[in-house]
Write a structure and sequence with these properties.
Elements: H1 2-5, E1 12-19, E2 22-27, E3 53-60, E4 72-73, E5 81-86, H2 88-101, E6 102-103, E7 106-107, H3 109-116, E8 118-123, E9 149-153, E10 158-162, H4 165-173, H5 182-197, H6 213-217, H7 222-226, H8 234-237, E11 245-252, E12 255-262, H9 283-302, H10 313-317, H11 324-332
Parallel strand pairs: 1-5, 5-8, 8-9
Antiparallel strand pairs: 1-2, 3-4, 3-12, 6-7, 9-10, 11-12
The structure holds iron/sulfur cluster (SF4) (2 copies).
The site of one iron/sulfur cluster has 14 residues, from α10.
Length: about 325
């Protein structure tokens, strides 16, 4: 904690804090004490890089203003931001979402600037939840993927492993840098191995890329999968790898803002055309879309595994117990 306090001049710092019955990320501003004794936050830390609502542009409609009707980019804060205590699955989640926002065809300037100014200080999971399946989708409770630093909670001590230049700079500013002794390194290795063994869920994804899209699309199981869904959007909003958004203009008097807000393919309005036609106007089509996107379209497009980091949030919080692990089995073995 002392080390973090000393970094406040160099970084905005976000840490896990307890909020009612759940944990979330909050600012290290003294209002709520950091709490690293947690399994994972209810919402993923996605909003720290990609806010749920983000003002993109602002404008005036006042014809007396020489700048009337000209969109001006809203001011943003891209100062260095350390996200401390992020779980490895959520760092992996950022890597997956980054493929959508930063690729050879398109670079989203706001995502890129927020992401590049962030330092991801991971905290390995000593005790994964029963719903976690990170090891089945290319990660692990102590995976270094996407992290700048990985912390091991060894009880009396934290061991910090710098993984990138950004991470090493953070550690230097925090006053770290000494080499850990052999016994601590061994303890860290044992901890990581035992945590991985605790993840018992098997999830098959190995045959997804060989499936024919149209056959999966027309598979008979979608009615059953979607039967209980109430299209609440919970699964998409707490997911670290869902990236869809909508853009709205909000005008008050003569002043306007152009804002982008998270959206979800689970909502009926998501695909409603201006003509009134809706290509996904029933829930079976929407539920199918969510899983086809994560487990087939993404797989085919990026050749990089599935669009899921195995955090298990949608499994834990879906009010009708729709379970992506079971859907993946259905699709993989169809
Ligand atoms: S959380 Fe469950 S019920 Fe809600 S939209 Fe997602 S799958 Fe449907
Ligand atoms: S699909 Fe579910 S398990 Fe996978 S990353 Fe999103 S919330 Fe986590």
């Amino acid at each position: 904690m002392k080390a973090l306090e000393g970094l406040k001049d160099s970084y905005k710092i976000s840490v896990p804090v307890k909020d009612g019955d759940f944990h979330g990320f909050g600012s290290l501003d003294g209002k709520k004490a950091p709490d690293f004794d947690y399994q994972n936050t209810r919402l993923s830390p996605k909003s720290l890089v990609y806010p749920q609502s983000e003002r993109m542009f602002e404008y005036t409609l006042d014809e007396n203003d020489p700048d009337a009707n000209i969109l001006k980019e809203s001011a943003k804060d891209y100062s260095p931001h350390a996200i401390v205590g992020i779980r490895p699955c959520d760092a992996h989640g950022f890597q997956i979402a980054n493929l959508n926002f930063d690729n050879p065809e398109y670079r989203d300037p706001w995502w890129v600037m927020h992401f590049e100014s962030s330092v991801l200080v991971g905290l390995g999971c000593n005790e994964p939840c029963s719903t976690c399946f990170c090891t089945q989708v290319g990660g692990g409770p102590f995976s270094e993927k996407g992290l700048d630093i990985l912390l091991y909670d060894l009880g009396d001590n934290f061991l910090a492993r710098g993984l990138t230049d950004k991470g090493e700079e953070f550690l230097k500013k925090a006053g770290g840098g000494s080499q850990a002794d052999e016994s601590l390194l061994k303890d860290a290795g044992d901890l990581a191995a035992s945590a991985s063994e605790m993840i018992s869920t098997g999830v098959s994804t190995d045959k997804l890329k060989d499936k024919v899209i149209n056959e999966l699309f027309d598979a008979p199981f979608w009615d059953d999968v979607a039967f209980g869904c109430i299209n609440c959007g919970t699964c998409a909003y707490l997911c670290p790898t869902c990236w869809c958004f909508d853009i709205q203009d909000e005008v008050l008097g003569k002043e306007g803002d152009r804002i982008r807000n998270w959206d979800s393919c689970m909502f009926p309005l998501f695909t409603l055309h201006g003509s009134g036609h809706n290509p996904r106007d029933n829930k079976v089509q929407r539920v199918r879309q969510r899983f086809m996107h994560k487990l087939k379209y993404y797989v085919d497009k990026y050749g990089n595994g599935v669009q899921c980091s195995g955090c298990g949030r949608c499994v834990r919080y879906c009010p009708v117990n729709i379970d992506i692990r079971q859907v993946s089995e259905l699709m993989n073995n169809f």
